[in-house]
Amino acid sequence: MPKLPPRRLLAVATAIALIGSNVHATSARDQPKNGPEQVCPLGSFHCTTRPYNYSMCRPNALLEFYDPFLSKDSTVRETSTTFARAQHVDSSDQTVYHLSGNVNMQRADQELHADTAAYNDDTSDYDAQGNVRYQDAGSLLAAAHMRGNNNASTGVADGDLRYQMLKSRGNGVAQRGEMFDSDHRLYSIATYSTCDLGHHIWEIHAKSILQDYVKERGVARDATIRVFNVPILYLPYFTFPLDNERESGFLTPILSNTSRAGFRVMAPYYLNLAPNYDATLTPSVFTSRGEMLGGQFRYLFPGYTGQLDAEFLPNDQTNDSGTAAQTKGEDRYLVKYISASHLWDTWYLTTNINHASDRNYLYDFGSLLDNSAIGTLTSSVYAIGSGTWWNSTLGGDVYQNVNPFLPDSVNPYNRLPRATLNFNVPISRWLEFGMNNEAVAFTKNEYSLVNQNGVTSYQRDFVDGNRLDLYPFLAADFQGSYWFVKPKVAYRYTAYDLDSNYGNYGYGGLLASGQTSPFTEQSPSRALPITSIDSGLIFDRSTTLFGNSYTQTLEPRLYYLYVPYRNQNNLPLFDTSLMTFDYWQLFSPNQYSGADRQMNANDLTGALTTRLLDENGVERLSASFGQITYFTPQRVQLPTGQNTVAPSTDWSGSDYVAQLNLQLADRWRLNTTYQWSPNTDHTDMATVELQHRLGTDGVLNFSYHYLNGLLKQFSVSAVYPLSDRWRLMGSWTYAQPVKGLATSISGTVEALVGVEYDNCCVTLRLVDRNYVDQTFYGQAPLAPGSGTNLRNNAIMFEVVFKGIGSSGGEIDPLLRRDILGYQ
To answer: What is the pTM of this model?
Structure first.
C-alpha cells in the first residue's frame, strides 16, 4: 500500500463533502438515539415542548458504505497521512498518479471509494470517476464523477449526485454540485429534505440550493415546496437552517377558518437579524375582513429584554352585527409590548402594554386559536427595586374594555400612579419588624352629560380619589422540631382623599335625582389593630400501605385572629372584592382583596393535616380539614346595591373545608376540595380533578367544579396516542343550568377536537374548536334573533416541516391552555 505525504492528498478525497460541514456535523450513527421522552410531572400546568422526534426514521440508504471505525476527528486532517489502496497504481512521470480497481483512500475522518482516480502532484488537481462514494465525520456523497483542486478546496461533482448531511438529516439529489471552499456548496437543479432518502414526504425543489456552513444556512432560489410530490407553495427565494435553528425565510403557511373572520391564510416570514434580536412578519388574508399585517420583534441585550407584537387590518370589510360598534371601513389594530430593563443597581423597569383599536377586536379576532378572548386589556409600567430587607415598586395600571356587550364602566379603576414599599427587618433570631405600604391614585374615565340649573356639562360617572394604606407589624417565630408558635401584632391605617365632587357619588357611581346616601366625607379614614397567633404540632410515624413503606405525619394547627369592628360604609370601593373562600382563607387576616375593606374578626381556626411521604421524601398523600369558629358576627360587608349595605351575619362557624391530594402511583393524581356549610346544610363548593398519564406523551384529565348558585361544570380533556405516529387530542366543557342565575349558560361551553400525525420529518395538526362567545365575557346569553352569534367556530390546519425552522406556535398555546399536561 503506497504511503503519500499529507500535501499530496488525492483530490478525490479532498472533494471534502460537497455536502456537510466537516467541523460541525457528526455522523448519524454516532448520534444518540431518541429515547423515551421525559414524562411531564403530574399536575403540571405547562410542560416542556416536545423535541423533534427522529426515532421513526428508516435506516438511510446511503449508509451501506458507512465505516463505523473511521476517525471522527476532523481537526487533524492537515497533519495526517493519506493511505490509498487500489488494484492498479501507475505514475510513469512521478507527477500524475493513476489508480484503478476498487480505489480506496483514507485520511483522518475522510474516506473515498471510486473505480478510477487521477491526481496531479504538482497542481493538486484531481479527477475521480465511476461509482464515487465519499464519507467524513459530517457527510456522505455519491456521484458518478468528481473533479477539482485540492489546495484551493474546490470541486465539481455531477452524474446521479446524491448527498446527505448527517447532523441535521438534510439530504437530496442534484444535477451538479460545486464546492467553492470547505464551507460553501452550491447545487443546481436540486432537492432538499430532512425525510428519509427515497421516502420524501416533503422536499424543496429548486433551481439552485446554496449551503453555507459558516452561517449554518441554506438558500434556495426559484423553489417549490412539495408534499407527496404535489407543489403547495412557490417561493422565488427561500432560506432555511442547516442546524435545526431558525433562520431567515418563510415559515410554514397556516390555514384557518373562523365564524367571525372567515377563511384565513397566513404566510409568516422570519428574520434572523442578529443572535440577540429577530423579527417575524405575518401577512394574512381574511375572506370576510380583508388583509392584515402582523409582526413580532424580540430583543435580548445585557440588562434589556423585550417583545413587541402588533396586528393591523386597514379598512375592515365587515360590520359587526349584534354589537353597538360598527367596524366596516375602520382601521383595526392590536399592540402588545412586554419588556424588562435594568435601570441601576437593583432597580428594573418592567413594561406590559396591551391596546386594541376598538372593543370588538378580540371578539372578532380572538376566536383565532392564537388569541385568547378576554374582556379587559391591562397595561402596566413599573419600576421595581429590592434590597436585603426591602422591596418597592413605582408605576401604574390602566385598563381598556374590549367587551362589545358591556359598557366601559365595567373596567376596574385605573391605578396611576401607584407606589408600594415593603420591608422586613430582623430584630433578633425569632423577632422581626415589617411594614407593607401602598399609595395609589384611582381614576375611572367615564363621563355623562348632567344638567345643573339649566347648564349642561360633562361629569365623571364615578368618584375618583387617592388612597394611602400603611400596614406595620411585629412578628415572632418560635419553633422546635415538632412544634411552632407564631404571634403577630399589626396596625392598619387607610386614608382617602376624594375629588371635590364626592357628594355627588354613591357606591353605584354618579347619583341620579332622588337618590340618597352619597359619600359624606372627602377624606375618610380607617385605623385598627390586627393581632393573630398561629400554632401547630407535627407528629410522624412509620407505616406501610399496599406493601410500601411511608412516613405518616399528623399536623394539628390552631390560628386565632382578632380585628375590632370599624364602620367602613363611607369608604369607597376602588379595587376591593370578596375573595373566594378556600382552605388558605382559614389562615388569612382578611377575606377582602385590596385595602378598601378590612374584616372584623374574633375567630379561631382549627385544622388538621396528614401526609404520606415515601422513602424518597415524595409526598404521596396530603389531606386537610378545617373550620373557622366565629366568636363575634362578621359585620363588615360589601354594598349589595347602589346605596345599600348588606346586613351583617351571625354565623357560629364558617364552612367546613376539606382537601385531598393523592398520588400513590406515578401515573395517577387526584386533587379534591369540598366545602360544606353548617348554617345552610348545603354544599357550597366542590372540585374534583383527576389526571392519568398515557404512555410517554398521552394524558387524560377529568374535572368537576361546583359553586353553589353560580357554577356546575364538567371538563374532560385528553391526548391519546393511537401509535407512535398518530395522536388524538380533545377537550369538552359542559355546564349544567344554575337555577335562578340569569347569566347561566347550559350545555356545551367549549369543545375541541384535533388530530396529529408525526412522521420522521413532518408533523401535521388539524384542530376544530367550537365555543360559546359569551362565556369569555361574563355576559348572559343573548336572545335568539338578536343578530349576535351565540357560538363561534375556528378551524386551523398546520404543517410542521422538521429541520427548516417551522414551529407549532399557532396551535400549541391553545392545546396547552385547554389540556392540562399537554406536550
So the answer is: 0.77
